Amino acid sequence: MNLTGTLDFRPKLWGALRNYSGTKFRADATAGVVVGIVALPLAIAFGIASGVSPTLGLITAIVGGFMVSFFGGNSVQIGGPTGAFIVIVYNIIGQFGMQGLAIATAMAGILLILMGLFRLGTVIKFIPYPIVVGFTAGIALTIFSTQINDFFGLGLRDIPGEFIPKWGLYLRSFGNTDPCALITGLVSLVIIILTPRISKKLPGALIAIIIVTAAAYVLRTATDWFSVETIGDRFGNMPTDIPTPHGFEFTMSTVNMLLPSAFTIAVLCAIESLLSATVADGVTGSRTNSNTELIGQGLANLAVPFVGGIPVTGAIARTMTNITNGGRTPVAGIVHALVLLLIFLFMMPLINYVPMACLGAVLMVVAYNMSGWRTIIGIFHSPKSDISVLIVTFLLTVIFDLTIAIEMGLLLAVVLFLRRVMENTQIKVYSEQLDVAEDTDSPIHEILNVAKGVSVYEIDGPFFFGVATKFDDIMRTTIGNVKPRVRILRMRRVAFVDATALHNLEIVIRSSLEKGIHVVLSGVRPNVHESLQHAGIDKLVGPDHICDHITKAVAIANAIAEKSAPRQ
User: Fold this and answer.
1) Which residue, 124, 360, 453, 500, could crosslink 485 as a Cys pair with Cβ 3.0–4.6 Å?
2) For the chain, what is the radius of gyration of the CA atoms?
3) Helix, strand, or coil (residue 195)
4) How many angstroms separate the CA atoms of 436 and 448, rounded?
């Protein structure tokens, strides 16, 4: 985590344009048009589900998508609003309004840029997979829950944000289901599900919106009995003017209140964008510059608040659509943004006729695809610690919010990991004889005779605070009433030591020396030796009592034991 050397910011677009050709442009343009059409219903749906207008969802896809492609570190990444942000954006707007959302998104953009500058792109990938699966599944269930009202046409306006009260209200209101809305939603759902079976290249969501919107318009115009709420009914006529960039005021009190939300947005963006990039790399054979990608995502999230947009990140489904249709450079992502811009300028009035129940069906399918239920089943065959992390993260995401879920999930994962390491770190005790080649691949077994009065303690694993107390207890209990004359601490498998381990080691050594017990250290690695020097332990035991091999250590210990043995 440093800023030494050259700045790790090399957008893929800049390199792609050096050897660009007409053939590449035709492939990118085709892919960009297809992705733009696929992204249209999703941008609108995510905007509405997030608590903003469809217009702002589309503006986010245009501005954010362009910025991610222009500055990003992946050649085929498609940026835009995604389902991962729906819950947190909705909650921010409910608490702090659009001004608060703009500030939180801009702060998240700054955090992402700092992550990239400090070269944290690879570190983000180390977040435990059960945490990612847990909060992704939790988000999916939350998104699904938010669409019940529109899908069934319940007509509810003041819906609680909390999961349990929300479903309590739904269960009491299912008697008010609107048959027209339910039929519209079910037909949309069937079309979305069946379209890929006809052709995988056809965007099911868009096909459903076109067919259902046209049918609903005809029925609404020609009959008196069919009536279903549309986007225009709820939001009024959609503006087609390009938003004028505007600023917003930062105050320290607002910043402090929104920092946890901004952090959550930044982490979600980093995880989802890098996950999408990793999947894309596996298909295309290219390699993402993770730090550049984070900076590009940060610049996108820093830009969208000034046009009223919502958070943006890399979208896996749209990225894969780009790849399967021939997109290979960031030009495809730029074309996708231009296609959405043209739709926004010339076709926005048609969006007013889209039924809300149809969008509800679109988001239900998105939620189903996000849930990753097959992955969840697979994790349930993993160790209990991974299952615990997944369940806790999932429940906290659903019942509370993403910030708590990520924080507690990471904490639980760290605790369980340390427990696993502590359980696997063994401290062995030897006396009389020692096999030098034990636990190695060496075919030669050298048996060392350990003199009477010499005890050998081998630490097998990292020597850190979780093991330090265990080490201290074993040193005390294994001796019994027999006082050794020499203690050998074999440290060949100790990759590192922390401050707690060094402190306990110093106490053991001092206690041993006070009792007249000599201490010899064996197999000390260079980095561990350096830590011992900084702690002054090398001077405490004596430089000649720190050996690079057990053979030397036993020889020194045997000589001390024989010299100090009581004469018969």
Assistant:
1) 453
2) 31
3) helix
4) 7
pLDDT score recorded for residue 446: 67
Distance between CA atoms of 109 and 255, rounded to whole angstroms?
Answer: 14
Separation between Cα atoms, residue 527 and residue 542, nearest integer Å? 18
Residues in the chain: 568
| Average of per-residue pLDDT across 421-430 | 76
Helix (H) or strand (E) holding 550: helix 550-564
Handedness of CA 110, 116, 117, 123 (dihedral sign): positive
345 touches 241 (CB < 8 A): no
By CB neighbour count within 10 A (0-12 exposed, 13-18 middle, 19+ buried), where does 412 fall?
buried
Helices (H), 174-289: 179-198, 204-222, 231-235, 252-284
CB atoms within 10 A of CB 251: 9
The one-character DSSP state at 150 is H
Q: Do residues 105 and 365 lie in contact, with contact meaning Cβ atoms separated by under 8 Å?
A: no
How do the domains of the chain map onto residue ranges? 25-375, 426-564
**Of the candidates 523, 436, 559, which has an alpha carbon nearest to the alpha carbon of residue 532?**
523
**pTM given for the model:** 0.73
What is the largest distance, in Å, between two alpha-carbon atoms of the chain?
A: 117
Distance CA 186, CA 373 (A): 22
What is the spatial distance between Cα 6 and Cα 118, in angstroms, rounded to a whole number? Answer: 12
DSSP 226: -
At the top level of CATH, which class does the domain 426-564 belong to? alpha beta
Q: Which two tokens stand for residue 501?
A: 């381990």
